[in-house]
Protein 1
Amino acid sequence: STTKGLATCRVLLAELEAHQDAWPFLTPVNHKAVPGYRKVIKKPMDFSTIREKLITNQYSNWETFIVDVNLIFENCERFNEDDSEIGRAGHSMRIFFDKRWAELL
Ligand SMILES: Cc1ncccc1N[C@H]1CCCS(=O)(=O)C1
C-alpha cells in the first residue's frame, strides 16, 4: 500500500537500529569471530547492509525491504539458542518490528 513507501522503511529502520536489543544485528556477523557462521547461514543480513541498500536504491518496494529484515531474524533463530543472549535479542527485535509494522498498516 502507498503508506508503506520506502520513506516508511527508513523510519522503521532507524527505530530498529536505535533499539537497545539491536546490538547483535547492527553490522555483519564477523565470520572469523563466529565459527561455523559462514557455512550455516547462506544469506547473512544486518541493519547496516539494509541501510546501504536503502540509500543505493536496491529495494524496489516495502516488500523487498521486509524480506531482508525478516532474514535477520530467521538467521538469528537458526544459529542461536532461544535461551541465549543473542537469541533473546532476536526474539525481542522481531516482536518490536512486527508490532511497529502492524501499527503502520
Ligand atoms: C547476530 C549474530 N548471530 C550469531 C552470532 C553472532 C551474531 N552477532 C554478532 C555481531 C557482532 C557483535 S557480536 O559478535 O557480539 C554478535
Protein 2
Amino acid sequence: MTAGDGSLPAGSDPIATPAVPQAGLLNIANVLTVVRLLLVPFFLWLLFTDGTWWRIAALVVFGVASFTDRVDGQLARSRNLVTDFGKIADPIADKALTGSALVGLSLLGDLWWWVTIVILVREIGITLLRFVVIRYGVIAASRGGKLKTMLQVFAIGFYVMPGPIDLLRWVTMGAAVIVTVVTGLDYVLKAWRLWVDGRAGRTADGR
Ligand SMILES: O=P(O)(O)OC[C@H](O)CO
C-alpha cells in the first residue's frame, strides 16, 4: 500500500501545497525485510557449522534478523512506509526465518520433528487461508499472533544457544507450540466468519 495517491485536495494550490510523499518500494522498512530474507541462508550456514563459537555466531545472526522484524514493522507504520510489497514480504520473511531455523534444528537432531511439523503446518496453512479469504477481507496479525512470533523467536534462540538449558528450551518451545496452535484455530474461526459473511453479502446483493 502506498502512503497516498499523490493527488491534491480539491481547490488547493498546487504550488503552495507540498506534494504528498509516497512510500517508494526502496524504503528502509522494505530494505530491512529483504536483509532479513538474505540473512536466512547465512544463519543456516552458521547453524550447520560444527563448534560452539559457530553456534554463538548463528545465535547473533538469528537475533539480528529477528530484531529487523520488530524494527521494520514499527518504521513502516510510524513513517508511513507501508507498501503492498512489505505487507506480503514481511510475514514471508518472518516465516522463512523461523521455519528454516526449526527445520535446521530438527535436521541436526536438536529439536523433535513433530514440533517443527506442527508449527510449519499452522504457519503455511494460515498464510494460504489468508489468500483464500482475501476477497472478503484481510485477517490482520492478532495480538496472540504477535505473542506467538515472540515466543517462537525466544524458543528457537534457546535451542540455538549452546549450554545446558534444556528445561528453558522445553518450557518456551512448549508455550510457543500451544500459542501457535491456539492462534491458528482463532484465525480459522475468523476466516470462517469472513467467508460466511462475505458469501451472505454477495447473495444479498444478488451477485
Ligand atoms: O500469527 P501470524 O501469522 O498473524 O503472524 C504474526 C506476525 O508474525 C506478527 O509479526
